[in-house]
């Protein structure tokens, strides 16, 4: 119930969309969602060709690279503020490094 309430209060808009990150065992999935009209503005995964070329031995390096990639994509789409939805994950490790590298480009 808390998660449902939190999501409805912190819903993303066109000006400030919601950014979701999910770590699986093998890949990372990122989505930027506009909840007011219910569309995904863009999505990114480590399955895409430019990221498959790199072999990341360390997940922290991958998180930093993905944060830079997402930050540049948000600037390209003229999005300067986001709401970050970390779900039930704590703010440390991969999540922290990912957000710090996005903060180089936009306000979170």
From TrEMBL:
Family: Belongs to the universal ribosomal protein uL18 family.
Residues spanning the membrane: none
The entry's keywords: Ribonucleoprotein, Ribosomal protein
A biological process term (GO) from this entry: translation
One annotated GO molecular function: structural constituent of ribosome
Name of this chain's protein: 50S ribosomal protein L18
Annotated InterPro entries: Ribosomal_L18, Ribosomal_uL18_bac/plant/anim
Pfam families the record matches: Ribosomal_L18p (PF00861)
Organism encoding this protein: Candidatus Pinguicoccus supinus
One GO cellular component, as annotated: ribosome
């Amino acid at each position: 119930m808390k998660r449902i309430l939190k999501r409805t209060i912190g819903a993303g808009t066109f000006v400030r969309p919601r950014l979701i990150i999910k770590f699986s065992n093998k890949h990372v999935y990122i989505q930027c969602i506009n909840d007011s009209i219910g569309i995904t503005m863009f999505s990114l995964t480590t399955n895409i060709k430019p990221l498959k070329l790199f072999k990341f031995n360390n997940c922290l390096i991958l998180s930093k690279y993905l944060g830079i990639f997402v930050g540049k994509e948000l600037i390209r789409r003229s999005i300067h503020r986001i709401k970050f939805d970390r779900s039930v994950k704590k703010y440390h490790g991969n999540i922290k490094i990912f957000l710090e590298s996005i903060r180089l480009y936009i306000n979170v």
